[in-house]
Amino acid sequence: MPIACSRRSFLGGVAATLVALEARAQAPGVRTLEARAGLLRLLPEPAAPTDVWGFDGWSPGPLLRLRQGDELAVRLFNRLEKPLSLHWQGMRGDNAMDGVAPLVQSAVPPGGEFLYRRKAADAGLFCYRPSVFGSTPELMARGLKGLLVVDEPEPPEADVDLVMALDDWRLDKDGKVEGDFDAHAAAAGQGRIGPIVAVDGKPAPSIREFSPGARVRLRLANLANARIMFIAFDNAQPFVVAVDSQPCDAFEPVRRTIPAAPGARFELMFDLPREEGARCRLILRSLAEPDRELVAFVSKGPAAPARGPIVAARQNPLLPPAIRLETAKKLDLVLEPPKAPGGRWSINGAPSKAYEGPALLKVKRGTPITFGFVNRADSAVVMHVHGHAARLLHDLDDGWEPYWRNGVVVPPGKTKHIAFIADSPGKWAVHDDILEHEAAGLAGWFEVE
Questions:
Q1: Is the pTM above the cut of 0.70?
Q2: In b/e form, how buried is each residue of 198-233, taking b as 16+ CB within 10 angstroms?
Q3: Which of 141, 209, 290, 427 has its C-alpha lying 20 to 30 A from 446's C-alpha?
């Protein structure tokens, strides 16, 4: 669980958070979030705790939870020295509340406040985080991020409902957050990768004990700035039941591994081993560094009752069953990295003006859109369309993957296409979820009239 807190309450606050990620839907009304300084234990003692920025002083911030159809009402107080905002990653519609500064709102200045009100139309797992062009990498790298769960009326059967935030941290020799937020190597390359990987605000690995044979519903989010996490299951057979907030037919991931890009959310269900003391593990796979254990689930105590086959929640009836690709407005975006420090990414041959430039396209509400992302860089990009859920199209035909996405990983030198129906009026951001890329100009917008 998160362990960030003020200096005065560093120890006492830990116990208070042990219930946060397991609380059910909260009472209606306006919830306050205060962005302020806090502390996080990222290095073992005798090293001092790390100074961070967090919502209510925590990183990740407090879990927000409500019921589908309720109003999300959050008043943000900025007690920091930097302007900020709140973006609700994965939530569809309501452009004025999307939190992208300066595209749809002015950033909340130091000492200021802003009230976010929007309906939680979709159930699922969402992120909340700042989105201030040029500053987001620092705001996120210092700890400003959190999770929101919107509970469906009839959840799938499970013994354990576990919400988990993954992150990474980059510290200097004194245990402070490194300040190279605009480094050219990150802006043009892989982004800011931190060697310390954390689970719910504590360095991995995390140990969790549950009843033998317990069915676990795991809601997992990658809150890192840039690290694409390949997460493998060992000694458990997982089934993906939702991707980027939207339920899907349950399926087994290839090699029991999920590719969680920054901002991605996966919901999985699996059964723990029935043998007392048996362990199943989440393992972070990488070609660039040794594998590391993220979480160990240990079977302990009285056995849970046996359950039938895993079944996902009902799919979202508000999303279209089909997209007429033949009538879609099509736009390919050729993406090229900056060639020198201080430069910007280019889109279709011109340095990007990001959110201050003209719209990439304008369409009437209800128009199908197809974006093609052509990656000319030597590193992956993670292209994210705000306010909508999109289908990832197959590379060789007109079919699509059987789940919805907010963001899509485009490997170096490759092209990926997505399709969606522009059903929400407003000015919507399209950008790279590797935040150092976005800050260096890999961003634009489209308008739905």
A1: yes
A2: bbbbbebbbebebbbbbbbbbbbbbbbbbbbbebbb
A3: 141
Distance CA 116, CA 63 (A): 16
Strands (DSSP E) along 44-95, which ranges?
50-55, 64-67, 71-78, 87-89
Question: What domains are there in the chain, each with its CATH number?
Answer: 12-151 (2.60.40.420), 160-299 (2.60.40.420), 325-448 (2.60.40.420)
Q: How many CB atoms lie within 10 A of CB 276?
A: 13
Cα dihedral sign, 354-359-360-364: positive
What's the rounded Cα separation, in Å, for the pair 276 and 278?
6
Between CA 103 and CA 98 the distance in angstroms is: 9
Ramachandran region, residue 294 (left: φ > 0; alpha: ψ -120 to 50; beta: rest): alpha
Is residue 412 reached through a cis peptide bond, with omega within 30 degrees of 0 on the bond before it? no
Each residue's pLDDT, cut to its tens digit, for the chain (449 residues) gives 333 333 333 223 323 233 334 444 555 689 999 999 999 999 998 899 999 999 999 999 999 999 999 999 999 999 999 999 999 999 999 999 999 999 999 999 999 999 999 999 999 999 999 999 999 999 999 999 999 999 999 999 999 999 999 999 999 989 999 999 999 999 999 999 999 999 999 999 999 999 999 999 999 999 999 999 999 999 999 999 999 999 999 999 999 999 999 999 999 999 999 999 999 999 999 888 899 999 999 999 999 999 999 998 899 999 999 999 999 999 999 999 999 999 999 999 999 999 999 999 999 999 999 999 999 999 999 999 999 999 999 998 779 999 999 999 999 999 999 999 999 999 999 999 999 999 999 999 999 99
Nearest Cα neighbor of 35 from 146, 137, 117 is 146
